[in-house]
Amino acid sequence: MVDQIVSFFKNRIYKGDWLCGDVLPPQRELAKIFNVNRSTIVSALSELSSLGIIEPKVGKGTMIANNSWSFLFTNSPPDWNHYIEHGFHKSNIPTIQAINKYEFIDPIIRLSTGEVSSELMPHDAISKVLFHLAKLQVPFNYLEPLGLYELRVELCKYFKKHNLDIKPSEILIVSGSLQALQLISVSLLGGNSTVFVEENSYIKSLKVFEFSGTRMKAIPMDKEGPIPWMIDEKTLKEGNSILYTIPTFHNPTGLTMGSSRRNELLKWCKKNQLPIIEDDAYRELYFDCPPQNPIKSIDDSGNVLYLGSVSKSLAPGLRIGWIVGPESIINRLGDIKMQTDYGASSVSQWMLTLLLRDHLYEEHLISLRSKLKARSQYMLHLLETYFYDMATWNIPSGGFYIWLKLNKPISTEKLFTTALKENILINPGYIYGFKKSPYIRLSYSYASTKEMETGIKSLSQIIRKMIV
Amino acid sequence: MVDQIVSFFKNRIYKGDWLCGDVLPPQRELAKIFNVNRSTIVSALSELSSLGIIEPKVGKGTMIANNSWSFLFTNSPPDWNHYIEHGFHKSNIPTIQAINKYEFIDPIIRLSTGEVSSELMPHDAISKVLFHLAKLQVPFNYLEPLGLYELRVELCKYFKKHNLDIKPSEILIVSGSLQALQLISVSLLGGNSTVFVEENSYIKSLKVFEFSGTRMKAIPMDKEGPIPWMIDEKTLKEGNSILYTIPTFHNPTGLTMGSSRRNELLKWCKKNQLPIIEDDAYRELYFDCPPQNPIKSIDDSGNVLYLGSVSKSLAPGLRIGWIVGPESIINRLGDIKMQTDYGASSVSQWMLTLLLRDHLYEEHLISLRSKLKARSQYMLHLLETYFYDMATWNIPSGGFYIWLKLNKPISTEKLFTTALKENILINPGYIYGFKKSPYIRLSYSYASTKEMETGIKSLSQIIRKMIV
Asked: Cβ contacts (< 8 Å) between B108 and chain A: which residues?
């Protein structure tokens, strides 16, 4: 009861009902008000007094002495909201937070998820390397700043297949491509920097560059990809700038840049000393013909930072990617990585080393490509059935995505929430762009064929209702 | 030869030897100067002309038309140094960079390394869970923002042993404690924040807080640990502040805070609404008696963010740690983690889940403790032999470290480089402190007993020479 009385007092004072200097009724009256013995009131007043909340006023009894938060609520937590609001790094936008959350809630159908489903993963190959690793008994110590040397050697061999001649000292192992971008952002860019990106870009859905205070500017595009000479040269000169592109099976549009545009882009950027981040996460996911060589393969002046990853082509849970670039940059990024998390998981790094060394990764890719192609064809078939009169879309030749453009303008924000109520999760185009967008990113990599059918059908019905 | 002439021209122009508007000698003369055929000169001039570097001047021959960097060196890389210098995140100090580098160069003896050597790792237990995982064939997809649910459930059970009653929703899985600090720094602190730290602290060797523009302030210490009421209250009110402490087997001093100081510290911080980061990475590494309960166990108001990790007690290469705190904070940190690297390695998270579930971690700790105790005794024996008249040190009751204080002042910067020349790597005290330091952090967790003997002996000889 003492506690309740103390807490009643605190609340009245906190709310401002009782003010500093106000005199309390005599103990006998308080005992009546609370319907308790006088000794209970004495205990409560004694505690309030020890907290400095009340004190005796000569000749007048007891008065309220303090109404500050810290006196009243010493048991209250720190004002955490204030910390959250004033933290340096901004929150994800609500749509992204919702996507990150609902992806893990059954029975959601994930129509846009940018990862392979479990059935596309090479479980036997992974088991094989886990067995192998169990026998090897390598110690899982901290690794050197650039990452496991054995892995970097295997990657050099692997890069040769893509016309890239790279040394282990030019590779930094990272925990996925997103971390690569984070490291580049905080290590090489600053408050006065501009990142030029395709006018629809995966990167726009992230806060990774905004973090370091950097601006993002859209580059106008044509069918060949971003048009370098449309870049505003004035902006270019204002601070350290960089260009970010996904030239191969672009996220979210699915497009691949032709080889003449690759040449032009590099030439223009070289002339203007504008470094390029080439994000090549989807390269291996072609259906029939291998795509154009990486821009990095024609980079004779260290202009390109080349990013890769096995998150899309093997299993994202390994959290392994890489940055290829000039040694001075790789060392700088490695130093910052050491300050960030002391390196990527050694277990994951060893697993990928063995998958590459034993050609298990290559074997897996052959089967993955044909499965992805079949899935893309199935989704295209569903679109032709349910969306033939409502939208247009690209025919992908690799990667994960179909970039669906709705013929009639509807609120894709509303579509997102309405679909979610029907357990369908989609990535609306506006999270990737600089303006309102009639687009939806669809992915055929995650949902099962049954889910695709249910999902695409329901989605078409929802949209049909919205455009009436 | 054409290339060489072109490059000769470019360099003279770049250096300012030849200025814009200067007229070139006639082709015949140039041919003589370079001792080549006139056709070679014609080719070289044609290339320079196509680059826009020279152009014809009516009636006067050919003149230098352009001397800007981008015209002269279209093949040159971007000015990467400028990017490095203006990047947002500061480099490690040279001593730390050297430590990170030399740790991987044979035949260095690592006398200060803060990790367990391979012989202290539970290779059989790790093999067991790798086999188990190979059979389970769990898909390694992206995980939900807070990390693998199964792991968080196992951790809740584990925490009970330390008097902590935690829910899975109050835990964020991170890639080691360093990342925990990084996330707290960028998510909750800002340019006006102060981090209070013990006057010697592991954290001082990192840039993790400075990154978000936050200041670090030392808290005076006595034998019981940091003295909270010595904290400057004015600083406290200036912005979001936080207190960072390693109360158990402190890095680098080896000290453990007694239970009355733990109580006082929490009480003071609660009163002042100052959140505490309790870094408890060394808790399990006691020699005889378990240490005091965590401060978190007496935290009834969500005042403490509690950090743990298996990097010190199992294998750092897993890169797995955790943050325990109020749900709102954990969700905020999880959102930022998703923007940083999309989560820690799923493989590592599954491995730790199985190690905890099958009690393999507990079993390993029993053997690790006795091995560490024996190693600490051996190092103490070596110190008594070689340093008895030159230094004083603590007798550790757990953890990794001996904090050696040299009796006579010498330059520990010089000691660091001199020892390195003799292949001995030490962590000098100044990397952990706010002022010059007569201390060296020694660790008995990494070097073999033979290396310890050679290393400690050589180190004593080097110091003996320096104090003469």
From this structure: none
